[in-house]
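Step 1: inspect the first sequence and its tokens.
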Amino acid sequence: MNDKQDFTTGSISKKMIGFMIPVLGALILQAAYSCADMLIVGRFGTTAGISGVSTGCGIVNMATFTVTSIAMGVTILMGRYIGEKNTHKLNEVIGGAIFFFAIAAVVLTFGMIAFARPLAVIMQAPEEALDLTVTYIRICGAGFIFVIAYNVISGIFRGIGNSSLPLIFVAIASVVNVIGDLILVAGFKMNVAGAAIATISAQAISVLLSLLIIRKQKLPFTVKKEFIRPNREIANFVKLGAPLALQEFLTSLTFMALNAFINRLGLDASAGYGVAQRVQQFVMLIPVSIMQSMASFVAQNVGAGKEDRAKKGMFFGMGFGAVIGIFVALGVFFFGDAVSSVFSHDPLVIGRSFEFLRGFALEAVLTSFLFSFMGYFNGHGRSLFVMIQGLLQSLFVRLPMSYFMSIIPNVSLTYIGLATPTATLFGIAICFAYYIIVQKQMKKKPSPLYD
């Protein structure tokens, strides 16, 4: 491992920013990748198509983020073994991950194809968009193995401190997706089906090319057939990733419930929220890149026994993210309609999107604090707490508040949008209290990787 990938020495800010920039670049491209479907369907498809992509994408993303969260367990475990310089265990983690996620791909592919319509109905997709939503889910489900492969490969490279290759992989996918959308949606007028086919084709091409690129890299692990089997490291990374996956799954359910609440308000509200979700992806870029970088940074330093350095990394992430978040929040609050107009030319859809974003805007600042805490705790293997706090804020704040706001007569989506930053503020309070508890525990006994 070269000096750039070693987070246990050198300037914290330089190491974190150096690692974070490619992560951020990959997230920007991922957001653009996802937004391309919405943008091109919005311009060359129909309003029902926007709703179909939005609702269908919510279901597909729930499965994707759940898998990505389990893969985070692989990332954390690899960071620890790299810090310990334990090559044998590193090889076992990789082999176990390939075995585990291959089975997960088969199960999720079957589930998404078989249950696409019931899922769309549960989401209360507007009648005009129901069949389009089902089409999007089934096509994406058929190629879900490539979605899983991309996220697992990216997680492995972040685990060894290499965030540049995931950036290359998503760049390939983004370019192919945009070309596919233009050909299938704008050219052949395939609407939602074209967007879904372009998405999965882009992931497939990205994975195939990434495998060719990987073969030419000098890696700190070995991929051999004898390692691709059930082993004890599967239990270790599942133990770390399962709480995160359960949290992501249940949190996604709350956002899907929010989507369902808004779908009941009509097609313009459903499409407007779909556009707002795409803007949200860009708002969350800095906080998410901080969390992903933090987990790898902290895990390496925990493995090397450098707890003070891990804490300094967390505080750096909070300050860095909050400063940028202030400017992002102001931009969304005052100019969210201009950004929304990129995705749709319908004034009603743009207006509804702007309504939601005005309530959501403060999230750009608050999430930097919450995600820095989460990255720190994940890096210590305390993913069970991360899951618990996520569930508490979702079940006790975000979900009830958004439901209550959605049933108010003549409700503005601004009030529904406020549920998210309110829940995040609650989560920060829980994390701060737990951080104090953890510090007291560490004075008595060094924190293990596993709880």
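Step 2: inspect the second sequence and its tokens, then contrast the two.
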Amino acid sequence: MLREKIKTLSCYFTKTEILLWCISVTLIIISFLIFDRESILTLTASLIGVTSLIFNAKGNPLGQLLMILFSVLYGIISFAFAYYGEMITYLGMTAPMAAFALFSWLKNPYNGNKSEVKVNRLKTKEFVFMTALTAIITFVFFHILAAFHTASLIPSTISVTTSFLAVYLTFRRSAFFAAAYAANDVILIILWILAARSNTAYLSVVVCFLIFLVNDIYGFISWSKIQKRQESAL
């Protein structure tokens, strides 16, 4: 039974995707053994996160289910370093929006195939609405995070901005969601480099988001191809 499931997965993913996932997992484990060795929670979150990204790259709703779990774990990790912006963002926004995205993806399968979501091309009016809503969210969260004396206030606020864009675009099934997550990864890399100055164990988190960045870039490329294939079939 297990052998059959492994064979099915190996056929489902391309060789590039399997290689990307294997390299990602290996680097995460190596960085954990070098820089941390204690926080199993960080290791678990990283492995779940990178696995969710490879499913997201295929437009598979399972990726959103794993993202919910990752968001909860990452929120706990962020709380430990007083990155309240990250905690609030992932527990109060990313996790709930991932749940909505899971519902949206399951409700909109491509040609009845529940393992591939139908990619949506947003209209100009919605991009304008999204931009205005993002500006409001950024303004409000800046003052909330300032009140909580959040560490690294400006990068944390920018992280909220990119995170909101990412979860909104994910919910709306736009290929640009992966690009928004890639932008968010860059901000998170900066945040955790700052954190690593006082605790080198957080270097494993830096490596995690570097790997996430590569995976999100691949996700954007993959979704662009999926969108082109789906639209050409119309």
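Step 3: confirm your contrast with the notes below.
The chain has a mean pLDDT of 91. The first helix runs from residue 2 to 12.
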